[in-house]
Model the fold of this input.
Amino acid sequence: MSVTQFKVEGFNTFYGRSQALRDFGFELKGGEVLCLLGRNGAGKTTALQSVMGTVKPASGQLMLNGENLFGLPAKEIPRRGIGYVPQGRRLFAELTVAENLEIGLQTRKAGREVLDYALDLFPVLKERMDQRSGTLSGGEQSMLSMARAMCVDPLVMMLDEPTEGLMPSAIASIREALVKLRASGVAILLVEQRVDAVLPIADRVAFMDHGRIKAEFGIDEVRNDLSLLHQYVGVSDKAKA
Amino acid sequence: MDIAPYLLLATLEGLVQASVLTLTALGLSVVFGTMRVVNVAHGEFFMLGAVGAWVCAMLMPGPPWLGFVTALIVAPAIVGLLAAAADWAILKRIDYDPEATIISTIGLMYIIQQVVLMTFGPNAQAVDAPFYYTIRFPWFGYSSYKLFIVVAAIVLVFALWRLMKGSRVGLLMRATQYDKDTAQNFGIPVDRVYSGVFAVGAMMAAIAGVLVVPNQQAHYLMGHDPLLLSFVVVIVGGLGSIPGTIAAAVLIGLSDGLLSVFFTPTLAKIASTLLVALVLVFKPEGLFGKATR
Done:
């Protein structure tokens, strides 16, 4: 099976007259984790929404395995194999856990084995299948949001702050799932505020500011020079690393 | 005075009214719940169902039930197609903007009214009931057709419930209702869901119109009252809540029947309007509604 090639290039996105993304782009291969770091308002969430097509970029290219997805209706982007874990989880709160997962499965008509794989990564969800998702704990909701995106059977997975507000045990579960997902050949774009959640699993780190990627480093460069974190996102290297 | 016969009659009349109201209001509620569109033309879809039943009765030779059964199939189908076309031609193009959809559905309401007026004239048209059988109670006889309306409404509400809760289409509709953007992130064709929901909502009203026309003559202005009462029901029950809509329709239908028999129909209308005011003041999200999503 060929390795997934995913490339976002020259995205310019506007909210009215305000430009949120400026020539934004990155490249990602299957089995790779790229972490996107940046301060609040840097444009990270807009970047993900622009890729998913729920926010329409004015220009750009969105290439997945040689096919340009740019300009396709928003519903077509996930159908081509791009899974998305939105910020704040965005579960269908009135639907049960099983129904949320079913929504993920129907995207690309994934089979039962995909559901089983997702549930094996988050076994706690097996006990909650008939429970309304809005009544789950924060950690379980995050796991469900990720499991739902995994039910898409994605080639590329984009996650927007999946560990936000979670306890360490839940963060560990999600991190473990990401590692397994990467090992299965999925290309992962991870947006995070928490540098400590990112460093153990990232292959590369891209720093974003004012709607564009300012710099990109291999994970070893960042680990060896934690002052980069301070320089680009203003976090204390001692506190976060 | 023996109150029992009056109470029974008022209850039966209230149940019939509640049944028609449930179907009409459910259509409005499903459309608002999923699309956030306040469809002011909803009463006209009801009227088109009634006029369609009259046209079918006119055109179909043979016994009245033949025209009625034909109307039950053909009228909602045509109204559903018309609603889907209106969604494509109007609502989609204004991006379902809440204010713009109100204005545009007001326009649609007048267009439908005037087309019906120009095509079928201003006269009210009677349609025979599909069957005549009187159920004998100790004090009076009662039309079996009216009780058929109650049964038909229960069956249709159950069918809608199963569609929403037990089918893949219903799952997609509910997901779209809760979060349109996230639904798109999972490949749900929101535009097609909207189109289907608008058609289903209109078909519910049209079926109610077909059912009601043997009791109430078809007329190009007959959509006003069902629209207003549907708004009352949907506001009291909770916008977009199916259980709330059913409960409110039964509450308002029964209270309307009881107050009309024991006092006056005017008092019944005052009571339902007062109920809306009280709900809006003390529980604006409706009796069964959720504050926000």
About this structure: The longest strand of chain B covers residues 134-136.
